[in-house]
Design brief:
single chain; 216 residues; mainly beta; eight-stranded antiparallel sheet; 18 strands
């Protein structure tokens, strides 16, 4: 199984991860030393033609396999957010195939509220879980959904397509900062995951390519 290590921080500006086939092995592991989160913001862009369920972002700790999972439920056309193994669903979004979509997700442990921004439009805020932080050694994976800490992959939940511009903060990003991310303007880079200075490991067939752009 081929592996690609990036032990130094890599600037992936203008790049994307390409997941070219359905598999239960291929993924990218994103490295962070943080082990305690009282609040979280995660932003990323994805491009796929999948007509089934698939994972968009998977963060597991030794305490919960779904400590922060962003998951597309195809039949109901809902983007699920699993936090501390609790779930909130966001529907009514035009998740079209074969085009880039930008998603930002926020949650804080005090209010327990989760919110999703999809292509610049905010959702309502929903309660999912409160009173405790996401804590413990975390494993963050793109391309697969973790049913155990770092494993338990299901080929029928794997991601096929492209991902880019993955950022994570340990606080709630302001609506203006989120909008700047959506519009690809200047914004405060993630202090947990920063696409412009990313430490990661590629497992199996995932490619780093120039990001596909639309020309006018």
């Amino acid at each position: 199984m081929p592996q690609c290590d990036s032990s130094l921080f890599s600037d992936l500006s203008g790049k994307m991860f390409t997941f070219p086939q359905q598999t239960k092995t291929a993924h990218v592991r994103l490295n962070t030393s943080r082990q305690d989160f009282g609040a979280v913001t995660i932003c990323h862009r994805s491009f796929t033609d999948l007509k089934r369920d698939h994972a968009l972002f998977s963060m597991a700790t030794t305490f919960a396999a779904n400590d922060f999972l962003i998951f597309m439920e195809y039949k109901t056309n809902e983007i699920e957010h699993h936090i501390r193994d609790r779930k909130a669903e966001f529907g009514g979004r035009d998740y079209k195939p074969n085009m880039w979509h930008s998603i930002c997700s926020t949650w804080d442990s005090v209010s327990g509220l989760v919110q999703m921004w999809f292509d610049g439009q905010p959702s309502i805020r929903k309660f999912v879980t409160s009173g405790s932080n996401i804590s413990g050694p975390s494993i963050i994976i793109l391309g697969q959904e973790q049913d155990s800490h770092g494993g338990g992959f299901d080929i029928n939940q794997s991601f096929v397509g492209m991902m880019s511009d993955v950022y994570m903060w340990d606080y709630i990003l302001s609506p203006c900062e989120i909008q700047r991310y959506m519009d690809e303007q200047n914004f405060t880079p993630g202090n947990v995951l920063n696409w412009r200075a990313l430490e990661f490991k590629i497992i199996d067939r995932v490619l780093i390519e120039n990001k596909l752009m639309t020309c006018f």
